[in-house]
Design brief:
It comes from Xylanibacter rodentium. By secondary structure, the chain is an alpha/beta fold. The chain has one domain (about 5-380): TIM Barrel. The chain contains 13 helices and 18 strands. The chain has helices spanning about 15-25, 30-35, 60-75, 95-100, 140-155, 180-195, 225-235, 245-255, 255-265, 280-285, 305-310, 320-335, 370-380, and strands at about 5-10, 75-85, 90, 110-115, 120, 135, 165, 165-170, 200-205, 210, 220-225, 240-245, 275-280, 295-300, 315-320, 345-350, 350-355, 360. Strands 1-2-4-8-9-12-14-16 form an 8-stranded parallel beta barrel, surrounded by 5 helices. Helix 8 crosses helix 9 (about 255-265).
Length: about 375
């Protein structure tokens, strides 16, 4: 049995009235991607899509092609980012709603609640030097949690919905941000059972190192030694599992804590604040021993470059190639090989985050290389 690779999926490839108002008429993820320029010697920008072109997710043909590409690479399904802000307000919901209502593509899916505020810095680099201001705030309430569950119940009951231990997966991007998260989880488990489901398999996204203390949430000099504490902090809140990211740990161990501290502090000012890390070197530090825990689902990171969104004030990985990514996939598979088959899960970060240089869809430079890397690594693990 192959490891279960689930790809995080960004739906921001169709215009919506809110984005038209905030970022300009016709804004989508492609707006930043197409305008990207090299910012330092050897910088690979812009990234241009190949087979699918600058697609529009309102077209069902595009969604079918994406599913076919993913299926051929050995990806189990898509995990759609779900933007629910409270009081019934959603954004970017159209692609997933059409997938759900049409029954097409016939390809597994689940949801990740992207429960973060949108500010004037969320999507567009021209705003990055201006003072942060709120444009869409997350709102939480008991009543809204109930409405949220019932809005998603048809998805949870869809035959395509991805399950673990018989329960539909529901991932949460910022689990620590939900007030009384234990109460939220308990409520949804109760509602699930009342509506004919065995429960929900809750997964919280977290890091294995950070510039903030896991206990106090105060700034610290990049704690890279206590991944278990970061994971347990989420699991102890009632989550069944965690999605783990090792990027901050990798960067800190590659550059040192003082340089990371300067990068963080300069990022709060008008000073230049770019920190570049070689992809292969970063991947040597990306995973930790605790990623082999039964209830930890590591991430696969093919590439990382947020300069289309953030400009110079960001932290790109450089020298990424499909060949190096294939080694990353193989190493991740080794980490999870002793888990129960149903828990051998890797979250691909991501399928189509083009504005973060973080995708596996075909591009002009590498063609199908990123997808072939996954396919080849899976083939090797089955030999």
């Amino acid at each position: 049995m192959n490891p279960r690779i689930i790809a995080l999926y960004l739906p921001q490839y169709h215009p919506i009235p809110e984005n038209d108002e905030w970022w300009g008429k016709g804004f989508t993820e492609w707006t930043n991607v197409a305008k990207a320029k090299p910012l330092f010697y050897g910088h690979y920008q812009p990234h241009i899509p190949a087979d699918l072109g600058f697609y529009d997710l309102r077209l069902p043909e595009v969604r079918e092609q994406q599913a076919q590409l993913a299926r051929e690479a050995g990806i189990e399904g898509f995990c759609y980012y779900h933007y629910w802000f409270g009081n019934g307000k959603q954004l970017l919901e159209r692609p997933f709603n059409e997938v759900l209502q049409s029954g097409k593509p016939d390809f597994p899916f689940c949801l990740c609640w992207a429960n973060h505020d949108w500010t004037n810095k969320t999507w567009i680099k021209e705003k990055s030097t201006k003072r942060d201001s709120m444009i869409m705030k997350m709102e939480y309430s008991f009543e809204d949690h109930i409405a949220h569950f019932h809005a998603l119940l048809p998805a949870f009951k869809d035959k395509r919905y991805i399950k673990v231990d018989g329960k539909p997966i529901f991932a949460v991007w910022a689990p620590r941000d939900i007030p009384d998260v234990e109460g939220f989880i308990s409520l949804w488990q109760k509602l699930a059972q009342e509506n004919g489901l065995p429960g929900i398999h809750f997964i919280g996204y977290t890091v294995n190192a950070s510039g903030k203390s896991v206990s106090s949430n105060k700034a610290t000099l990049w704690d890279t030694e206590h991944a278990a504490d970061y994971y347990k902090d989420i699991l102890n809140k009632g989550f069944d599992a965690v999605i783990s990211s090792g990027l901050a740990r990798a960067q800190s161990l590659c550059h040192g804590k003082l340089k990371m501290l300067y990068y963080y502090m300069a990022g709060q000012t008008f000073l230049p604040a770019t920190i570049r890390t070689d992809y292969a070197k970063a991947m040597r530090h990306y995973y930790v021993e605790e990623d082999s825990w039964e209830n930890v689902y590591p991430t696969l990171l093919p590439q990382w470059d947020r300069t289309p969104r953030a400009g110079i004030k960001t932290d790109p990985l450089v020298n990424s190639t499909p060949e190096k990514f294939q080694e990353t996939v193989k190493n991740a598979i080794k980490l999870i090989k002793d888990k129960q088959p149903e828990h051998q899960i890797l979250f691909l970060k991501a399928w189509n985050e083009w504005g973060e240089g973080n995708y596996v869809e075909p591009d002009l430079k590498f063609g199908h290389g990123w997808l072939d890397a996954i396919k080849n690594a899976l083939a090797e693990c089955n030999r």
